[in-house]
Amino acid sequence: MRRILVADCEQEISSFNPLPSQYEDFTILRGGALFEAHADADSCVRGFRDVLGERTDFELVPVYGASACSAGPLSQQGFERLSRELLDAIEAAMTPDVAAIYLSMHGAMGAISELDPEGSILEQVRARIGPDIPIVISLDLHGLLTDRMLSNCDAIAVYHTYPHNDFTSTGQRAARLMEAILDRGARPVMARIFIPALVRGPELITATGLYGRIIDRAKEMETRGEALSAAVLIGNPFTDAPELGSQSLVVTDNDPAKARRLAMELANAFWTHHAKMLAELVPLAGAIADAALQPGPVTFTDAADAPSSGASGDSNTILAGLVAAGYRGCAIMPIVDAPAARRAHEAGVGACIRVSLGGTIDPARFPPLALDVEVERLDDGEYTHEVTRIPAHAGPTAVLRHGNIRIVVISRAVFMMDRAIFLAHGLDPEAADIIVVKSPGAAVRYFTFASRNYVLDIPGATSANLPSLGHRVCPRPMFPLDENVAFHPKVELYPARLRPAA
Asked: Rounded to whole angstroms, how far apart are CA atoms 405 and 391?
């Protein structure tokens, strides 16, 4: 029986988060624990297994999993240990009957010592297994495509939705790519075009925005059989890396000309609309004043400090603004502040204490704010994300009340892309007047009851005010970091043997 090795290595980072990630921030799953953890999850690993797991002519072999909340770049020691464990696990699982390898990845990972971790890992996997065993990977549409990644895998499936709701189906599409290679002898040709644009804003919401219409065409290419896989990746503008940008990608079965043509179609469509794909940001003071006039709850999207995009999560900017404005409505918000959570646990429920909130990780952006609060609730921070049904490990948690403002204080950054952080700690978002949402896409999916969403122009390591971040590594000129950026599309083909001679 032919064997397919399955591994998972995923994290998204912000290069502008001052706190490095560590190996200890990752959930490590070895062997069968990988499949057990994803059995009921909405994930690519689950989707891959859904398609191929029941086949009697293949054995899926779970090898290794490593995943962490988005954060700052991974430390050198952390990346070396993580990659070594993954590579050793794959090497240990290699037998003569291994037919292929599937890797669920993100694409916007980053390490202090390695700005292209996914490319490094794939390059080392390829070096260990040789040129003939197919490698299929899946990526987030916020991932980067690098030359090393494309040179060391055979085919790629990319998310088609934002906010993401196609984790499982992307894994299924990756499995069908694998079937095309192993069952039908497909010979994938990948064409990619680099687009010098970083984008962030409501037009990227695939259900309603201009980007979604482009992705609809990519999906059509797949469903009509024009391509094995098609996508436009918009990168992660907060991962400052040498190949950061947007990119079109088309995979065909041994048809370089078609791959070129379709990749060019997607790239040109994206460039036509790229200037409209920026967020309209609202000043905080104006949002607070306007929110008081709105019927029902409103959401304040703090995309600038979104842990799901790699930010530190310790912003107190909105809290300070509400306090300074004397806001009298009911507001709920999360914040990462381990010392404040620890102080609340020491004081106990019902205690009235003075704490310093915010700025424990990124004090340059968020000067700590001293507040008198009441400890309303204490928890261990163990709950389940709505968006993926994967456990959250937020550490010791406290709900603190300052007037009508309730703050969910957690010890470790976790994904905040849904309502779970509030519901798990006794807070009903629909009963609040202002809900602070620390994810750029959460409001349109999980807070649709809100009468209005304000995307705020405030500081943070994942600010949609992209020129304010201070990119130093990415290619230039780059929209919107520079003016008058021109697009001269160039198709690159993989495998490299398909490229014309210079």
From this structure: 27
Cα 369 to Cα 349, 359, 374: the distances in Å are: 21, 8, 15
Question: Residue 454 to residues 119, 267, 303, 320, 396: CA-CA distances in angstroms?
Answer: 37, 30, 10, 17, 30
CA distance 161 to 207: 8
* pLDDT, tens digit, 9 for 90 and up, residues 95-118: 999 999 999 999 999 999 999 999
pLDDT for 310 beyond 80: yes
CA dihedral for 55, 58, 64, 65, sign (positive or negative): negative
SS3 429: helix
Q: Tell me the fold of 2-277+489-498.
A: Rossmann fold (3.40.50)
pLDDT, one tens digit per residue, over 364-417 is 999 999 999 999 999 999 999 998 888 999 999 999 999 999 999 999 999 998
CB 298 within 8 Å of CB 250: no
Evaluate whether 436 touches 331 at the Cβ level (below 8 Å). Answer: yes
Q: How many helices (H) and strands (E) does the chain have?
A: 13, 20
* pLDDT score of 298 more than 60: yes
Cβ atoms 456, 302 nearer than 8 A: yes
User: Are the C-beta atoms of residues 422 and 429 closer than 8 Å to each other?
Assistant: yes
Average pLDDT over residues 320-328: 96
Q: State how far the Cα of 304 lies from the Cα of 272, in Å rounded to an integer.
A: 27
Residue of 158, 240, 237 whose CA lies nearest to 199: 237
Would you kindly state where each structural domain of the chain is located, as residue ranges? Answer: 2-277+489-498, 284-463
Could you give the CA distance from residue 2 to residue 130 in angstroms, rounded to a whole number? 17
